Amino acid sequence: MNKKIYTLRELAAFLAAEFRGDPECVITGIGALIFAKSHQISFLSDSVYVKYLDTTQAAAVIVKKENIANKNSGNYIIVNNPYLAYARVSVLFDDTPPMPVGIHQTAIVGNDCKIDQEVSIGPYCVIGNRVKIEQGVRIEAGCIIGDDSEVGEKTRLCANVTLYHKTKLGKRVLLHSGAVIGSDGFGNANDKGVWQKIYQLGAVVIGNDVEIGANTTIDRGAIEDTIIEDGVRIDNQVQIGHNVQIGAHTAIAGCVGIAGSAKIGRYCMLGGGVGINGHIEIADRVVITGMANVGKSITEPGGVYASAIPAMPHRAWWRIIARLINIEELMGRVKELEKK
Amino acid sequence: MNKKIYTLRELAAFLAAEFRGDPECVITGIGALIFAKSHQISFLSDSVYVKYLDTTQAAAVIVKKENIANKNSGNYIIVNNPYLAYARVSVLFDDTPPMPVGIHQTAIVGNDCKIDQEVSIGPYCVIGNRVKIEQGVRIEAGCIIGDDSEVGEKTRLCANVTLYHKTKLGKRVLLHSGAVIGSDGFGNANDKGVWQKIYQLGAVVIGNDVEIGANTTIDRGAIEDTIIEDGVRIDNQVQIGHNVQIGAHTAIAGCVGIAGSAKIGRYCMLGGGVGINGHIEIADRVVITGMANVGKSITEPGGVYASAIPAMPHRAWWRIIARLINIEELMGRVKELEKK
Amino acid sequence: MNKKIYTLRELAAFLAAEFRGDPECVITGIGALIFAKSHQISFLSDSVYVKYLDTTQAAAVIVKKENIANKNSGNYIIVNNPYLAYARVSVLFDDTPPMPVGIHQTAIVGNDCKIDQEVSIGPYCVIGNRVKIEQGVRIEAGCIIGDDSEVGEKTRLCANVTLYHKTKLGKRVLLHSGAVIGSDGFGNANDKGVWQKIYQLGAVVIGNDVEIGANTTIDRGAIEDTIIEDGVRIDNQVQIGHNVQIGAHTAIAGCVGIAGSAKIGRYCMLGGGVGINGHIEIADRVVITGMANVGKSITEPGGVYASAIPAMPHRAWWRIIARLINIEELMGRVKELEKK
User: Fold this and answer.
1) pLDDT tens digit string along A145-194?
2) Which of chain C's residues have a Cβ under 8 Å away from the Cβ of A328?
3) CB atoms within 10 A of CB B146
4) What CATH homologous superfamily does C6-93 map to?
5) Would the CB atoms of B178 and A320 count as touching at under 8 Å?
6) Which of A128, B236, B308, C49 has the fewest CB atoms within 10 Å around its CB?
7) How far, in Å, CA of B206 to CA of B229, rounded?
8) What percent of chain A has pLDDT over 90?
């Protein structure tokens, strides 16, 4: 593992932030405020936990100025947004194993590829024909890339990722293991009960700085392409149907399903397990809370939408269900009363 | 890529359909009516969009006779069901890369297999013992096939598919990347709180003309087999438990979960994210709309069932939830009024 | 396939149970009561089906004493819990193909690994550096194990499993194909709309006797580790977020999603498709029924919780939804009546 060591002064400089305390204080990792060990840096993002500043074992804490107004001692880095500063610092302590530059001798590369000299391609990868791989790309063991695909600068495919033919990935994309990009959209025409396959002629185009979670699937388009714009973040086990468009900087939590031809705006947030119907549009900056089902377009930007029911003791729930199923009868009784 | 070129006359002949206009009109692809380029064929499946016939750039359009009743010019193929005709034509423009016939030198094949001469097995595939692979099968890179499995004629396994031992696939089956067939069913007996594994002794049997989506999982049976009948279409990220039976020509959209021993009828349609309880039966031709939860058997064929709640602004939703939780109290107040 | 043959006497001895009938009766497999063939053993776990004891073709049946009180003939093994006894017997008839001991010549093993002599590592596996693999471990084809991981005694990785670096697996763990352990948690800090990645510095630690289903994903922790305790059973297509803790002997059915930092108690049962919010706690022995959404902590041990709505004919459902959306108006009318 690659242990990294920094001083408080170095971390503050990295964040272009003010600091207080011992500039030579040694920091070798990150810890949560209540669990941090003596050489870790921590952060206070929610003022509710300000009391833990007194008891934390952390070597230093990233804080807002207001949280240390009455502190006379301690090592602090002072920022406006401690959570964001923690995010920025986290890369310094990342211990993802490095990969040697070069193409592993067991990797199989097709014909007429354009592969930069400075790439890492791991064991048992299979790269198709006419694939373009740019500088700094890292493709881990067991990845399979179909013909005519393109992988932009510094993009990383974790182990066992599958790209079908003609997939285009932008720069600095991160795909987690088991992700499948470019599988056929679910296109079937009904012929007297029997399904006639609609061959999927489009592809998948993914922008820059996109992250795609483990075992997430993105289908290729039927005619036009499926499009994921820049900066989108997609968690694990998400299913994105053919011809979906996801606007830039939208975040999609785990287990979401987005049916074909849906168009999600930019800066949206979809909670875990949300379902989006096909052929609808969701405006920019819309938030859908977990396990909601969006059946119609949402045309106004920026609202928060929900439809999940919170779990409750099951007997109480089944009484409610019984009443709900008979709500029409209840309505009738109210109408009857109103007549009298 | 394999660009294909057809004339209007050829496509009409392929569809055994009448055409109007220039028989030598050249068609190199398919486009949606409003996006089609000048050498693409398009189709008009919904008469709502008939106005686009006047403005489309498409070389030709597949239409119903009634939609061009008043047209004096233009290139048309005339059919009863344009969407189905489009589906049929789509295969002509499919650019899925071909695979060379033969077994790649890095593929590992076990003992006592019966493999047809005319198959394509890609790099780094691992085929177990006593596996039978029929004529025209295509197994892409990184697939793993367990002992005693059978793969029928012209079946295609996309890259990184896993078949456990004793899996039987029919003819013309298509499995997308990351699909796992034959994993253990979720069988556990409780022994004073501790789970005792129930070894899963059945297998998975898949009929002809079945399509299975990316990262979909189908568990092997506990004692008898899990069965997917002919013509079933399963989308991505679907989970099918042990001993489930799916009737012929049923279509299952993404993210559906079907618990153990459920029996789904023929010609059913399950929307995205639907959950089916274990040990229930669903009659033929039943439609379950997206994200519904089917807890009991549906014995009458042909209905449409639902239980999803459409997302709405979250404040409005939480007011409704508060009222719903107190619906018993509301009922009580109505009863009190009725007494008076 | 490895057909196993036992006598009734042998099976009874294996279960340390009493038996009745022919001790030399030959048993070669297990069958359900109504489907069993003449050399299979069956079991009667639910007295509702006692009538099938008279008609079953099974060679012998595992029963409770009370179920054969009035039987004068037949071959029976008598136990308190026939379902559990069936579970115990099932391992004897398991036909999972054996793997030869040794490291396949195509497997790639990194530097400074500690690998026991008695392990099976299959073709095209890629094992990182400093990996520890204990006695009796079975790693099937195409598995990829990241640096600094540990795999405990008798653990089995089915084909195409991916472990990221620093993953720790206990003893007798079973991971099904397509499972991904240790992918990045979904950590993003928002910087004026743009997502800043939070590097995930923790790992995943899995206890003893855990089973993890096909295509299930478990994310590594952000700072501390994600923890799965002993005896946990997880079905297919489950998503477990970063820093989740799952208590010992909890069972999680297919398609469940558990958001980051949730803490599930011991001996819990989560039904299929359940969604658990992040940062909440669920007490021991809690049961959540299928497709429920748990938004808040459940602090009392042992209850059963629900929130799924059973599917119903869709017209009826849409009438109910219309009423539900206007429940506030109904409430207002009742209040109006009460005033009068």
Assistant:
1) 999 999 999 999 999 999 999 999 999 999 999 999 999 999 999 999 99
2) 319-320, 323
3) 27
4) MurE/MurF, N-terminal domain (3.40.1390.10)
5) no
6) C49
7) 6
8) 94
Q: Could you confirm whether domain C102-305 is CATH 3.40.50.2300?
A: no
Contacting residues for B192 by C-beta, under 8 A, at least 6 apart: none
Could you tell me which chain A residue has the CA closest to the CA of B142?
A: A142
pLDDT digits (tens, 9 = 90+) for A326-339: 998 998 999 989 88
Question: Between B30, B93, B272, which is nearest A259 by CB?
Answer: B272
* Helices and strands of chain A, counted as H and E runs: 4, 40
Residues of chain A positioned with their CB less than 8 A from the CB of C292: 311
Q: Which residues 297-326 of chain B have a CB within 8 Å of chain C?
A: 298, 303-307, 309-310, 312, 319-320, 323-324
Mean pLDDT of C82-95: 96
Q: CA-CA distance, B97 to B305, in Å (whole number)?
A: 41
**Do residues A292 and A274 touch, judged by C-beta distance below 8 A?**
yes
Q: Give backbone dihedrals phi and psi of B77, rounded to 5 degrees, phi first.
A: -110, 130
* Long-range CB contacts for residues B220-223, cutoff 8 Å, separation at least 24: B220/B164, B220/B166, B220/B167, B220/B182, B220/B183, B220/B184, B220/B185, B221/B185, B222/B185, B222/B187, B222/B198, B222/B260, B223/C30, B223/C31, B223/C32, B223/C35
Q: What is the reported pLDDT for B1?
A: 42
Closest CA to A221 of A247, A183, A189: A183
Determine the pLDDT at residue B35: 92
Q: What is the arithmetic mean of pLDDT over B244-266? A: 98
Domain ranges of chain B: 6-93, 102-305, 314-340
Residues 6+ apart with CB under 8 A from B270: B250, B251, B252, B253, B256, B264, B276, B288
Among A128, A201, A295, beta carbon nearest to B90: A201
Q: How many angstroms separate the CA atoms of C103 and C87, rounded?
A: 32
Residue B242 known to be catalytic: yes
Supply the pLDDT for residue A302: 97
- With CB atoms and an 8 Å threshold, state whether C267 touches B217: no
The pLDDT score that the predictor gives to residue B3 is: 60
**What's the confidence (pLDDT) of residue C4?**
86
C224 to A32: CB separation less than 8 angstroms, yes or no: yes
Contact C320 A321 (CB under 8 A): no
3-class DSSP state of B304: strand
Mean pLDDT value across residues C100-129: 98
Q: Does B189 touch chain A (CB under 8 A)?
A: no
Residues A324/C324, Cβ–Cβ less than 8 Å: yes
C161 touches chain B (CB under 8 A): no
* pLDDT confidence bin for A3, thresholds 50/70/90: low
Q: Is any Cβ of chain A less than 8 angstroms from the Cβ of B46?
A: no
pLDDT, tens digit (0-9, with 9 covering 90-100), for C6-65: 999 999 999 999 999 999 999 999 999 999 999 999 999 998 999 999 999 999 999 999
Q: What pLDDT sits at residue A1? A: 42
B255 touches chain A (CB under 8 A): yes
Q: Is A182 left (phi over 0), alpha (psi -120 to 50) or beta?
A: left
- Which chains have 3+ CB pairs within 8 A of C? A, B
Q: Across chain B, what does the average pLDDT equal? A: 96
* Chain-chain contact of C214 with B180 (C-beta, under 8 angstroms): yes
For residues B177-199, give the mean pLDDT. Answer: 97
Contacts of A91 in chain C (CB under 8 A): 197, 199
Distance CA B86, CA B42 (A): 8
The rounded mean pLDDT for chain C is: 96
Portion 202-241 of B in contact with A at CB < 8 A: 211, 213-215, 231, 233, 235-237
The answer for residues whose C-beta is within 8 angstroms of residue B174's C-beta and 6 or more apart is A184, A197, B155, B156, B158, B210, B211, B212
What is the three-class DSSP state of A136? Answer: coil
